[in-house]
Design brief:
With 332 residues, the chain is mainly beta. The chain has 2 domains: 32-76; 83-330, Leucine-rich repeat, LRR (right-handed beta-alpha superhelix). It has helices at 32-38, 54-76; strands at residues 79-82, 85-90, 95-101, 109-111, 115-116, 119-124, 129-130, 137-140, 146-147, 152-153, 160-163, 170-173, 176-179, 184-187, 195-196, 202-204, 206-209, 216-217, 228-232, 239-240, 253-254, 262-263, 276-279, 285-286, 299-302, 310-311, 318-319, 322-323, 327-330. β12 (170-173) and β13 form a beta hairpin.
Length: 332
């Protein structure tokens, strides 16, 4: 996968968004993404290698500096900081996406604004609110239409997510984030009802009953909810998406109702509190590494024939990917 690291451009950079530059050749040895940008720039060639004389060295250093400034300018196009927020302007919708929030020890409540520069804030981007150890409450504005599946994740002391009543896409039920129609649970705050000491030690574990009528347990919905001990799923649940219960290490009890047909990749990775699991006769898909590192499971009972189920790579309980002694029983 190609990667390019995005950094803010210097304040005095004069390169404008959407400008096009030329260069004779891409940077040798640079990542593909950087070479592709560099290939669009034309700078007078200086030969196939750095010159040994001082003038040639200075010239090459200047060219590299100029190219770096251009890359930084491209990377920062449309990105704007405001306090602890960083937004990205979306020209096609004339709106903003929240792309990053900087955690602060002085802030325990995060209110996502309805607008920025008089334009609506309509989305929460990938990892925009992630690993924020001081947040206890998030308030989502009325204009948010989309939340990336990694948008709000791993905020260890988060207790409540509230949603503006006028929001047409999302809602909150007792502090837990759902889709507006209540068919999908999106984010369960890591410390919703669990209690922790100041040093992070778990004082009181939590249990949670997913709302009736919920069809989908969303991607990372319970991601790293270390204090969660018990989960009750309603009969309406049909799908558990990727990483839904990823590293819920303290969870010792969860039911799998009839009607459930799909469990996604890494859904119960490192759920070491589980010892016995029974999957319903309706199960049809078990993704890759469903029970990876869930190495305390001793018995896994699946109430259908193996030929009825599409199985991903190493879907069964393992320890760091290594096979362990576990009884897998197929059929009723």
């Amino acid at each position: 996968m190609k990667k390019i690291f995005l950094l803010p451009a210097p304040r005095d950079a004069s390169v404008s968004c959407g400008s096009r530059f030329n260069v004779a050749a891409p940077l040798q040895g640079a990542p593909d993404g950087v070479r592709q940008v560099a290939a669009a720039v034309r700078i007078p060639p200086v030969g196939g290698r750095l010159r040994s004389n001082q003038g040639g060295f200075k010239r090459n250093a200047f060219i590299l500096l100029l190219l770096t400034l251009m890359l930084l300018a491209f990377a920062s196009c449309g990105r704007e900081k405001h306090g602890n927020f960083e937004f990205l302007y979306q020209e096609e919708t004339d709106s903003y996406t929240l792309i990053y929030y900087t955690d602060s020890a002085a802030v325990s409540e995060l209110v996502i604004p309805d607008t920025f520069k008089d334009k609506p804030v309509i989305a929460i981007g990938q990892l925009a609110i992630g690993s924020c150890d001081t947040l206890e409450k998030i308030v989502i504005g009325k204009n948010i239409q989309e939340i990336d599946k990694w948008g709000i994740v791993d905020c260890r002391y988060l207790k409540v997510i509230e949603v503006d009543e006028e929001n047409e896409h999302f809602t909150s039920l007792d502090g837990v984030l759902y889709s507006k129609d209540m068919t999908k649970i999106i984010t369960y705050p890591n410390a919703h009802t669990a209690e922790y000491a100041q040093d992070g030690k778990l004082l009181k574990p939590a249990s949670y009953t997913v709302a009736p009528g919920t069809n989908i347990i969303g991607h990372c919905a319970f991601y790293k909810c270390y204090g969660l001990e018990k989960v009750i799923l309603p009969d309406s649940v049909e799908e558990i998406e990727d990483r839904a219960f990823h590293k819920c290490e303290g969870m010792t009890e969860i039911n799998f109702p009839e009607g459930l047909h799909t469990i996604g990749k890494d859904a119960f990775l490192a759920c070491r509190g589980l010892e016995e699991v029974t999957l319903p006769s309706t199960i049809r898909v078990l993704g890759e590494y469903v029970f990876y590192n869930a190495d305390n499971i001793k018995t896994l009972r699946i109430l259908t024939s193996q030929e009825n189920v599409t199985l991903g790579n190493k879907w069964y309980p393992t320890s760091a990917g290594r096979d362990i002694s576990v009884e897998i029983i197929w059929g009723e």
